[in-house]
Amino acid sequence: MKNEDLKNKEELEIKNDMKEAIEEGNSEAFVAAQTALAKSIENRILEEAKNARKEGILSELDKEIMSKRGFDLTAEEREFYNEVIDGDGFEGTEKMLPATIFDRVFDNLRKNHPLLSKIDFKNTTAVTEWITRNSEAEAAWWGALTDDILKKLSAAFKKEDTDLYKLSAYMPVAKAMLDLGPAWLDRFVRELLYESIALALEMAIVDGTGDGEPIGMNRDLEGAVVEGVYPKKTAQSLADLEPITLGNKIMAPLTKEGERAVPEALILVNPLDYWERIFAKTTFLTADKSYVYGVLPIPAEIIQSVAVDKGELIAGVARDYFMGIGSSQKIEYSDHYKFLEDERTYITKQYANGKPIDNESFLLFNISNMNPAVDTTLSSLSLGSLSLSPSFDASTTDYTASTTDASNNIKAVAESNDATIAIAVDGTIHDNDTAYDWAAGENVVTITVTNESEAKVYTATVTKS
Q: What average pLDDT is seen over the chain?
């Protein structure tokens, strides 16, 4: 495995650890995972800077090359980061974090996270305030301003009146990062903000309880709210993806009693369910031998999200979820927590709040009874030593062959051990892996592969001369 692959795998595992810690309310585990993520991003950027120096593109004369690599700073951003570097850290910086930094973070979120690209984000900066808090390196932890997690982390904070909830991003920045210059420091800040915010936003949008965080798509806005927590909706059963099922259970309810047209629905599933239950049912081989994915009998887009519980599916209209975002204030500094002597911890705050526009905006389904797609392909097909045309391929179902032999052994092997094979020649049943005596002219061999309720038929037309 390449080094880049190892890094990607490492960061994916770290983000999974962050998700589990958020779900379990385990602040210590979250801090450890966020620290590891920051170090991983820092090491990656330091290595990238080292390689760039070898390529000789760090001078001011190479701005065009740097811009193409995502280092195009505005004058305000460059001035801000230069002040940070001159002051040996954010603690000496009087300027506010430029709003354009958060704007670009959210541009990347919309571009690279399918779910977030569909959500209606609105800038509500004018109605937010920021607080200062000292803590260990942590990011993207949703919570009310006085929740237990803050207390567990021995946080010092100033309570503010706000209609939004905070999403904290903590950045343990090594002095080595400051030495690289404004463009590289910006790269680090934006990447850590991006990774931290993306995970927490997606989890809140899908499964937020409303207690110190947004209200998720799967929550019942009309249910009994207990200590600020909205209950999950009662999941309906969805056993298949047939047109009549999807039309009646998804599209019809989303029209809100026929009061609106639904040009496209959004379908969210856990990645495991997607590959086990959804993928094969929505993937088809075209006449030109290429596959098309995500094909449904309704106008809908399928998006995978780890925030969706396994065995569940959420359907709705993306614009029916509103998320207000407030940003652009100072990055505060703390030397109370250091992971290395050469490292300091900084904090910035993102404020946000969101909820479905009404209780009918999103539907929750139980798909645990939806049968996983079964394999009905052949792994091999042979007619003695005859040459098949075209050569055997599991995705190809029609073949021809010519022979002068009196007989040949017909053998078919299914890809799945659970599948059964039935062979017939010109309608007459024939035992698998036995010889068949050809008649003069065409002999049509049909091989039917059956797995549970699914079946696939292969044919081979053998011409004996």
A: 76
User: Tell me: the pLDDT tens digits for 285-295?
Assistant: 887 878 898 99
By residue count, the chain amounts to: 465
Which residue has tokens 């704007």?
103
To the nearest 10°, report the CA torsion of 25, 30, 32, 37: 170
Structure tokens at 79: 């001035």
- 378-464: CATH topology: Immunoglobulin-like (2.60.40)
Lookup: tokens for 43: 């090491």
Encoded tokens for 224: 């009994």
DSSP state of 52: H
- DSSP structural state of residue 181: -
Q: Are strands 343-356 and 321-326 parallel, antiparallel or unpaired?
A: antiparallel
Strand (E) positions, 83-146? 120-123, 139-143
Q: Assess contact for 69 and 216: CB atoms under 8 A.
A: no
Distance CA 177, CA 195 (A): 18
- At 82, the pLDDT band (50, 70, 90 cuts) reads confident
Strand 343-356, strand 428-430: pairing: unpaired
| Number of helices (H), then strands (E), in the chain | 12, 21
pLDDT of amino acid 44:
78
Q: Is the Cβ–Cβ distance between 395 and 283 less than 8 Å?
A: no
Instruction: Give the torsion through C-alpha atoms of 346, 197, 110, 367, to 10 deg.
Output: 170
Share of the chain above pLDDT 90, in %: 32
Cβ atoms of 129 and 96 closer than 8 Å: no
Task: Indicate the residue type of 406.
Answer: A
Rounded distance between C-alpha atoms, residue 315 and residue 318, angstroms:
9
DSSP 144: -
- Structural contact between residues 345 and 171, judged by C-beta atoms closer than 8 angstroms: yes
Per DSSP, the three-state class of 174 is strand
**CA separation for the pair 164, 173 (Å, rounded):** 28
Is the distance from CB of 346 to CB of 372 less than 8 angstroms? no
- Domain boundaries in the chain? 3-213+330-347, 378-464
The three state secondary structure string of 221-252 is CCCCCECCECCECCCEECCCCCHHHHHHHHHH
Phi, psi of 288 (to 5 degrees): -90, 20
CA–CA gap between residue 47 and residue 261 (Å, rounded): 51
Q: Are 391 and 434 within 8 A, CB to CB?
A: no
DSSP single-letter state for residue 369: T
Least confident of 82-96, 181-195, 231-245, 284-298: 82-96
